[in-house]
Automatic annotation (TrEMBL):
It comes from Nocardioides conyzicola. One of its GO terms (biological process) is methylation. Pfam families: Methyltransf_24. This is Class I SAM-dependent methyltransferase. It comes from the Bacteria.
Amino acid sequence: MRHGPESTGPEPGPAGTFEASFAIADSIPGWLTRDQARVLDEAARTVPPAGTIVEIGSHRGRSAVVLARALGDDGRLVAVDPFPVDWRYGDDGTEAAFRANVDAAGAAERVDLRVATSREVRTSWEGPVEGVYVDGKHDVWSLRDDLRWAAHVRPGGWVLVHDAFSSLGVTLGLLSVLPLSRHLRYVERTGSLARLEVARPTLRDRVRPARELPWFVRNLVVKVLLRLHLTRIAGWLGHHDAADPY
């Protein structure tokens, strides 16, 4: 459920409808709900012709398929992921799976895959981007560094952050940046997907993330319950998934 201003979203773009895109993406393993995928789809459809968006953390391509298929024919998604095999969910075949899934979705021509870290790509980046989707490493320092991509986003553009207020590192990273930021304002969240806008925040914008802290505490409790295999009690809190809240 989305928390924030209502939006009807843009009309379907030239790449196909959201329903068609999500039907493809939903067959790809990953952690992106239908409602979150719709937010990604709507954001990508606002990108002008030949515009560029950046995805940090691509895994097997679940979110990349949604983003790339929503772009116009001349749009570009720069997908950034080093595909580490020592990651909890990584293995030797993850990069190949990403490429195969994007190709099967008919989106390969719009995807520019960079097998590198976010910082490696960002420090040599030139030119503006229309938006950034952040789903990289979930520690404080990586999240803060990934948010530096906002300096390349045009005023009024978007930055979407996954696992906001559900991951300790991501939450602490956001809370250490947003209250003092001069160019990022918190808008809303859809589940754990936070939407930020590249704009000067008001005082209300700066304190708005604090309203999400009760939901964050609930998610931490759910994680503890899952580790203790107390799934029934987690269900009492509204969590009915074997995976951590997202």
